[in-house]
Design brief:
mainly beta; 0% helix; Putative ligand-binding protein with streptavidin-like fold; Uncharacterised_Atu4866
């Protein structure tokens, strides 16, 4: 069985403008700039590939490679947990 939780967490662009929070259970919440929850929807992981479908029906996809998420021309990095 594939470990679908290995990518759960927050993924962010280098400038911090776009933040994808991948939640357990296949939901995501995307923030853009100061706009929290700009997009919300579901995601499905197949290996290192992710398919997104937002709640309006828009779809997109991406791939995780060497700890980096490549999605729709963007590059997102896992946000480090702060203690």
């Amino acid at each position: 069985m594939e470990d679908n939780n290995k990518y759960v967490g927050v993924w962010v662009t280098a400038d911090g403008y776009i933040r994808h929070e991948l939640l357990p259970g296949g939901r995501y919440d995307e923030a853009r700039g100061n706009r929290k929850s700009a997009y919300q929807g579901s995601y499905k992981l197949t290996g290192d590939h992710i398919d997104y479908k937002d709640d309006t029906g828009f779809t997109a996809d991406g791939d995780f490679r060497e700890g980096v998420l490549y999605h729709a021309g963007m590059v997102l990095y896992r946000e480090e947990k702060r203690s």
